[in-house]
Amino acid sequence: MSAEAKKKTVVVTGASSGIGQGIAIAFGQQGANVVVNYHSDEEGANETLDRIKQGGGSGFIHKADVSDEAEVEEMYRKAEESFGQIHILINNAGIQQDSSFSDMSLEQWNKVIHTNLTGQFLCARAAIRHFEQQAQPGPEEMAKGNIIFMSSVHDIIPWAGHVNYASSKGGILMLMKSLALEVAPKKIRVNAISPGAIATDINEEVWSDEEQRKALLKLIPYKRIGKPEDIAKAALWLGSDDSDYVTGTTIYVDGGMTLYPGFVDNG
Ligand code: BGC
Predict the structure, then answer these.
(1) Which domains does the chain carry?
(2) Ligand 1 center to 196 CA (angstroms)
(3) Residue 153 near ligand 1, beta carbon < 6 Å
(4) Is 70 exceeded by the pLDDT of residue 4?
(5) Which one is catalytic: 38, 76, 165, 252?
(6) pLDDT, tens digit, for every residue of 65-120?
(7) Whose CA is nearest to atom 9 of ligand 1?
(8) Residues 55-76: pLDDT tens digits?
(9) Which secondary structure element, helix H or strand E, spans residue 190, and what is its range?
(10) Does the annotation mark 165 as catalytic?
(11) Is 116 in the pocket of ligand 1 (CB under 6 A)?
(12) Degrees to nearest 5, angle at CA 13 with 201 and 5
């Protein structure tokens, strides 16, 4: 895989921490060129790029708000200018702003939908426009472009107190599938990864507290909280030619969280 990844350029959004950082570093360790997108954590983005370089990869850091059309266009323009062809988009940037439904402000709703869903739309559209300019490969050749959406188990597991977040992820499921159908004849692949509970900043409040951690583990049949590397390994495979016949699919990397764990001794 590494010789193949060496030739590839990957845009990773939200690459300054957590899952995005893990994926960006993993591609870097395979020798890829990586565009390290971040929104506010410049220090985290620097750390990501350092680790990409230590791993034998290369790339640059680009600050952009994925929900801003002009900033996304500019990021792609710069990536094209630097690397020519871009092969993979890891459409990862996402946030949570939790609230009970009756207390949820329009701002909290909009912020999450704009970043998680509109942001993934804008980045995917920029990627598709870029891929479409590439020559059409022959029937036996591998895909000319590849998009991986970062979804969540909450694209199918309802989540009380997080309606904005679950709605954005449910939206990504159909965005991913409908787009996959539309662009498959152009030999562009589109898939998603739905992580379960991965220990990152987004859920630190839960995994760092002993009681909450215990309660969380009850929801994970495999009995461990995930790591960004668990997701990075799936992303490397989906981004590689080894998965060339896979499109329109979601891989749930969740230690069995989507298996209805409440039914293990009940029902
Ligand atoms: C959320 C995490 C949560 C996990 C499992 C993820 O999509 O961002 O906060 O721990 O789903 O519920």
Answers:
(1) 2-201+226-260 (3.40.50.720)
(2) 6
(3) yes
(4) no
(5) 165
(6) 999 999 999 999 999 999 999 999 999 999 999 999 999 999 999 999 999 999 99
(7) 203
(8) 999 999 999 999 999 999 999 9
(9) strand 188-195
(10) yes
(11) no
(12) 110
* pTM exceeding the 0.90 threshold for the entire prediction: yes
- What residue owns the CA closest to ligand 1's atom 8? 202
Instruction: Give all strands of the β-sheet with 88-91 in edge-to-edge order.
Output: 58-63, 33-38, 9-12, 88-91, 145-150, 188-195, 250-253
Ligand 1 contact, 202 CB (< 6 A): yes
User: Is the Cβ–Cβ distance between 254 and 153 less than 8 Å?
Assistant: yes
Say yes or no to pLDDT of 178 above 60: yes
Confidence of residue 3 (pLDDT cuts 50, 70, 90): low
Decide: 172 in ligand 1 pocket, CB within 6 A.
no
pLDDT tens digits for 185-202?
999 999 999 999 999 999
25 touches ligand 1 (CB under 6 Å): no
Cα gap 77→38, rounded to integer Å: 16
> CA–CA distance from 73 to each of 78, 122, 148 (Å)?
9, 8, 18
Task: Calculate Rg over the CA atoms of the chain.
Answer: 18
Ligand 1 centre and the CA of 89: distance in Å? Answer: 22
Average pLDDT on 231-235 reads 98
Task: Compute, in angstroms, the gap from residue 162 CA to the centroid of ligand 1.
Answer: 10
